[in-house]
Amino acid sequence: MEIFLWMILAFLIFQRLGELALANRNRKWMVERGAKEWGQGHYFLFILLHSSFFVCIIAEFVWTPYVQQPFFSVALAGFFVLQVLRIACIRTLGKRWNTRILVLPDEEPIRKGIYRFVKHPNYVIVFFELMVIPVLFHAYLTALIFPFLHLLVLTVRIPAEERALQERI
Prior knowledge:
Oligomer: single chain
Largest sheet: 2 strands, antiparallel
CATH class: Mainly Alpha
Number of helices: 5
Shape: elongated
């Protein structure tokens, strides 16, 4: 089981690095089309949050004996559902998906796919990922702390996004 979990962790780390590369490509594409970037001052908080998230999972996983819990299967199923939803967000936004706040001046916000139902679905998905993923690794302290930290960062991020969208024209 532990090998399987190391595989999941490696997948997640490579996935997040791939998403950063995709975000950089998308950023270049949007800037070429006149996009303006907002909220650069708090972007480091996301990098810090997500980097330390993985460090904390690894630390808890290595330093505590692993015992598979009865709710592991539920957490694993939740993980897979969250991955599908995460991919749906990225696909729906296409080249407009980014880890930064970039707004094309004369374009309306995308309101299709999952965005028809939830204004900031990726943040909701990440909130639940920050709870579910650590549970897979019996990193319960990480599962308690990081969703809360995510919410704190969002108190800065979401208002910055809303301002960017209001002032885009």
